[in-house]
Amino acid sequence: MTRRTIAVVSAGISVPSSTRLLADRLAAATVSALRERGVDTEVDVIEVRDHGHELVDNVLTGFPRPELQAALKAVADADGLIAVTPTFSASYNGLFKMFFDVLDSESLIGKPTLIAATGGTGRHSLALEHAVRPLFAFLRAMVVPTSVFSAPEDWGAGDRTAQSLDQRIARAAGELAEIVAARPAQKAADPFLEPTPFEQLLNGS
User: Fold this and answer.
1) One Pfam annotation, family name (predicted)?
2) Which of 63, 98, 126, 204 lies 20 to 30 Å from 134, alpha-carbon distance?
3) Torsion sign (Cα): 137, 50, 103, 69
4) Can you give 123-141 as a three-state secondary structure string?
């Protein structure tokens, strides 16, 4: 069985968080869909709220602390990405944006990506298409066609809205799994393969 890694970025700010709950369900559905395609999956979950102070420091200084650097590397090295944000003022929240602001600008080029969001009302659902999808288009990620939004009414047990959410999760996870399974595993870049020439280091350029 081949193996792939999925990075899950959850930008919920409360504990427990509906954003993290949706992220976990998307990850589980993706793992299941990849298993059906003969692919074993490792999931790396990044809770952005845990790196809030580090993100501010990184924005101000330009240097990430080791914990944040490890989270950024997990996203860069992953074969696929699931990115989930709560919706504030009809857009992603600040922590979500800050995380992708400090991520290397080339880390997501061509990376299969599933986007999702939560909100207090279904009226926020268009934020995925007019805010989140354009962000990842700018970063040149390969975003799957189906995005997933969940409002409080989507979490009811056994009703139609809950079933609709289940269907959207399954469809989006299947789309992500299809792309990830069809590609060779991502290889982490080796910084020692192309070291900076010593003369360039001496010149400070």
Assistant:
1) FMN_red
2) 63
3) negative
4) HHHHHHHHHHHHHHHHCCC
